[in-house]
Design brief:
single chain, Serine Threonine Protein Phosphatase 5, Tetratricopeptide repeat, mainly alpha, about 210 residues, about 80% helix
Length: about 210
C-alpha cells in the first residue's frame, strides 16, 4: 500500500517547562533523525538500522522522561512515534502494541485530537496485519473524533479517511469507498496536497469504471 501523504510539520504540543520540555526536545530530535534517514537513507541496511536504533533509544528515553513528569499527552506522542519506527523496521506486531499503548495514554490525557491521531495509526497497523474489523473500528472512531473536534488539520483528517476508503474498497463496499474518497479529496485539496487529490480522483475513476 502506498504511504499516506504526509504533513511536514511535527505534531504540535502546548509550550511547557521542565521535564516536559526536555522530553519534547528529545522527541523532536529523534523524529528529525528519522525523517532524514527516510529521505536520504544511509548506504546499506546495517547503517539504516543503526540510525533507527538511535532514534528508538531517544524515544524510549523520552517516554521515561514523560512518565517521570506525568506528561501523558507527550507520552502518547512518543509511544506513537515508537510505533512508527517499529513499522519502519517491518515489526508490525510491535508497532500495534505501541500504538495500543499510545491510544490508552491518549484516552487518559483527555485530548480528542491526540486520541484521533493515535487511534488512526492503530487502525492502519491493524489493516497492515489483516485485522480488518479492528482496523475499521479504529478508523471509524478516528474519523468521528476529527469530525467532532472541528479543529483538525485537513491533512490529518484526510489521512484518516484515506485508509478507510481503501478498506471499504477491499471489503466490497463500493458506495462507502466513494464517499470516503470524495471527502478525502476535498480535504487534501484544502490542505494543498496535490498528490492526495490525484490518488483520490484515480480511485474514484476506477470505481466509476473509468
Amino acid at each position: 500500500m502506498a504511504r499516506e501523504p504526509r504533513n511536514p510539520a511535527p505534531e504540535r504540543l502546548e509550550p511547557v517547562g521542565g521535564g516536559k520540555e526536555r522530553a519534547r526536545a528529545l522527541i523532536a530530535k529523534a523524529w528529525q533523525a528519522r525523517y532524514e534517514a527516510l529521505q536520504s537513507p544511509p548506504t546499506g541496511e546495517a547503517a539504516f538500522r543503526a540510525v533507527m536504533a538511535r532514534v528508538e533509544a531517544d524515544l524510549v528515553r523520552a517516554c521515561e522522561m514523560c512518565k517521570q513528569a506525568g506528561a501523558k499527552q507527550e507520552l502518547s506522542v512518543a509511544l506513537g512515534k515508537l510505533g512508527h519506527v517499529a513499522s519502519d523496521l517491518d515489526r508490525p506486531d510491535k508497532a500495534r502494541t505501541l500504538f495500543e499503548e499510545s491510544v490508552a495514554v491518549a484516552r487518559e490525557a483527555g485530548d480528542p485530537l491526540r486520541l484521533a491521531h493515535a487511534v488512526r495509526h492503530l487502525g492502519q497497523v491493524n489493516h497492515r496485519l489483516g485485522r480488518l474489523e479492528s482496523a475499521g473500528r479504529c478508523l471509524a472512531q478516528a474519523i468521528d473524533l476529527y469530525d467532532q473536534a472541528g479543529t483538525a488539520h485537513p491533512l490529518d483528517h484526510a489521512n484518516a479517511l484515506r485508509p478507510m476508503a481503501v478498506l471499504r474498497e477491499e471489503t466490497g463496499d463500493v458506495e462507502g469507498a466513494r464517499l470516503m474518497w470524495r471527502r478525502a479529496a476535498q480535504l487534501y485539496r484544502s490542505a494543498g496536497v496535490d498528490e492526495g487529490v490525484r490518488e483520490c480522483e484515480a480511485h474514484l475513476s476506477d470505481l466509476d469504471g473509468g
